[in-house]
Amino acid sequence: MNKEWDLSPLYTGLESPEFLADFAALEALSAEFNALCADLPAENRGEAIRKVLTLQEKIAEKAHRLYSYAELRSAVNTGDEGAVNATAKLQKLLSDSSAAEAAFRTYVGKTENLDDLIAADPFLGEYAYLLRTMQDDAKYTLDEKVEEALAKMNLSGGSAWENLQAYLTSTVTADYRGEKLTLSAVRNLAYDPDPAVRKDAYEAEVACYDKIRDGVCFALNSLKQQVTTECELRKGGSPLEMTLRASRMKKTTLDAMIRAIEEYLPVFWKYLRAKAKLLGYEGGLKWWDLFAPMGKNTATYTVEDAKQYLLDHFRPFAPDMADMMAQAFDEAWIDFYPHAGKVGGAFCANLPMIRQSRVLTNFDGAFGDIVTLAHELGHAYHGMMIEEHRPLNLDYSMPVAETASTFNETVVMNAALDEATDPEVKLGLLESQLQDTTQIMCDIMSRYWFETAVFEKAKQGFAFPDELCEMMKQAQKRGYGDGLDLDTLNPYMWVCKSHYYSAGLSFYNFPYAFGGLFAAGLYAQYRREGEAFLPKYRALLKATTVSSVEDVARMADIDLGDVNFWRSSLEIFKDRVEQFLKLAGAEE
């Protein structure tokens, strides 16, 4: 079994005839697109829209393939100069079409009989949701030349700052017990069963951020100021409002979810205090013990073990998902291990043009790594469900992006819990699940509040590293309450989390909470309905790219604006906490 992913189904190299031919084809298609959008007719709008969409399909397929190859190469080697240069060239080429794209969006926005055109043409009918949202968004589209200027400036602005953060965090080393470790490697030691290792790793991690904090600070400030400026230019409201609009999600949904989470945060604080007690001290849990393994769930796993574990737990739920997982392991979809130059964390890149995905992890053998694989392969399954859509109907919004992945976490953890008979094993499994759930409740809320504060600061001026650290600590105190030892926080979490570093994707935090709670609600339905739920689940995933978040939920008879739905999902986790406290003998 390969331990690195295989990118040859995309291209065999940056200088391969196929890569060069596709790049040349993309250049020609882009030029054709620019010319077509420069002279859109006042009459025969249906035919004109069809022509543009057909051309955009060809561009999307070529660009996605080329861009994915370059980006995936960079992810495992941020010093890959060829991949970095190829990405820059692609960004430049695509930015050259920004004015044409703005012209087309404006054209669609001013098409008064759009619904009639959609009804009359089956091809346009397949793009009904895309066209209607395009029309709704047209009011925030700027003049074509301004759009083009913004896109071009982003190459040396937001995109460059994002790359800087990725480069600095992937190349910095931590001084750990006389060794030089990558940031990913030292962060993985947070899962070590030895408390001295965890503490030393935490101190080494925090210390290493001093080496890069200034550069990353400038990246964060510059990105948030750029987003704020663009929101003002578009007159589209705050960055959060723009994010919700792009997410196809109502503010009432977000408000209902956050209200419920705030009500239940003390439940997770109780779990954290209980864990601290089991580790031998009173009060809040120390930061370096957040991921301390407990019970008998301290075993380490090989990649082969992880594969078998996933297949055993997912085949009873969805055989087609288990088959896809086996394919992912057997056909080198996954890049497993951390190393210098490789980005931290984990992600999944869907590649519909080859009907596959690629998954990056930083596998270290802990049970949490198996959960991470389940999560990322959930994204791959989501990608499989939507690959029959037309090429421009393949993007799902942020909130539903985390639904399939978090549902997978729920499946693997709950199946393991149901099967566990040894109380110590059950305790370890419960604790592992509560680790993850606490992250998507307490930590995600702290990230949401931190990013909100950073955007507020961006209106007034520059936030230097010490101020960002203080903002992060305040957010962590609010999210974790008395569940943590407030003298052992991690003020530098703003440095290592890539989610903050995108000019086009703000607030990539609340979707994790959404995914966790939405998945819990869906899993409860699966428990009630059994196999009858699976067709509904597959259809729901397929609809995520052509429906609003609220409409997707309604397919499962869920009203996301009702705070009681979110409370019902949180009750599931509250029950898990109570089980944990009982097994641990730590009931308060």
Strand order of the largest sheet: 3-5-4
Mean pLDDT reading: 93
Number of helices: 26
Strand content is under 5%
Q: Largest sheet, described in full?
A: 3 strands, mixed
**What's the number of extended β-strand segments?**
5
Distance between the termini: 48 Å
Cα gyration radius (Å): 24 Å
The parts where pLDDT drops under 50 for at least 5 residues are none
| Helix/sheet category | mainly alpha
Shape: globular
- Provide the helix percentage: 55-70%
Note the topology:
Elements lengths: L16 H21 L7 H32 L4 H15 L2 H12 L4 H7 L1 H5 L1 H10 L6 H12 L2 H14 L1 E4 L2 E4 H6 L6 H14 L4 H22 L4 H9 L3 H28 L24 H12 L4 H12 L3 E2 L11 E5 L4 E5 L6 H20 L11 H4 L1 H17 L3 H36 L6 H16 L12 H4 L13 H20 L3 H11 L5 H6 L8 H22 L4
Parallel strand pairs: 3-5
Antiparallel strand pairs: 1-2, 4-5
Task: Provide tags for this entry.
588 residues, mainly alpha, two-stranded antiparallel ribbon, 3% strand
What's a quick, concise take on this entry?
With 588 residues, this protein is mainly α.
Give a description of the structure:
- With 588 residues, the protein is mainly α.
- Helices cover 66% and strands 3% of the residues.
- It has 26 helices and 5 strands.
- The chain has a 3-stranded mixed sheet, with helices on both faces. A two-stranded antiparallel ribbon has the order 1-2.
